[in-house]
Amino acid sequence: MTAIILQARIDSSRLPGKALLPLSGEPVVFRVMEALNHVSADLRVLACTEDSCSHFEPLAQKAGFVIFAGSKEDVLGRFCGVIKKYSIDRLIRATGDNPFVFADAAIAINNEALSHNADYAGFINLPYGAGVESAAACALLRAESETTLPYDHEHVCPYLYNHPDQFNILCPPAPFKWNYPDIRLTIDTQDDYKRAAELYSALPQETRRYNGETIIKKYSEIFR
Fold first, then answer.
1. Could you tell me the pTM of the whole model?
2. Averaged over 84-97, what is the pLDDT?
3. Distance between CA atoms of 192 and 224, rounded to whole angstroms?
4. Which residues pair with 121 in a beta bridge?
5. What are the boundaries of each domain within the chain?
6. 2-223 CATH
7. What confidence tens digit (pLDDT) does each residue in 122-131 have?
């Protein structure tokens, strides 16, 4: 089984409540789920912190995601809880502050991961906030059992890609059409949010909002 697991929380030191800020009429986290619904998967999970579950549950249901509440600090443990509950084989990891995640790039990197039987895969040099990570569930379960470093548990996948001698790691450069590492698409500050709101409202409707080339082109028209 392949699952999309979206991690999200309410609190943020730089932009409190950013996941619930409106973006063209819907909360940011809902826009992320909309984008991820264009990526094929057997299961879609919003893996949130326990204190945010009541805020996110109706949004998850509306987007067709199931909700799973877990530790705020141990995000790796939260992901492994999802893996164990639903018997997942492979997961696509995304984060709730990236409403411009490239659905087409997510599909491409997961296909690459499957074709190479990679424990971990992620494109290098995508716009910041456009990408996802594909990981083998068994590799993350191993990471959970082997590392006690807080950083590894807070960020989910570092134990895998920091041990290329122990895991099959695939980190190809992003194809030219998506290779724009100087573009920032995540929402982490008030300035990020203002830019995201302007960009999102200017994008064409439907699936073009989740197409990497369309997003890059519109970003360049507005901000360059």
1. 0.95
2. 97
3. 15
4. 134, 170
5. 2-223
6. 3.90.550.10
7. 999 999 999 9
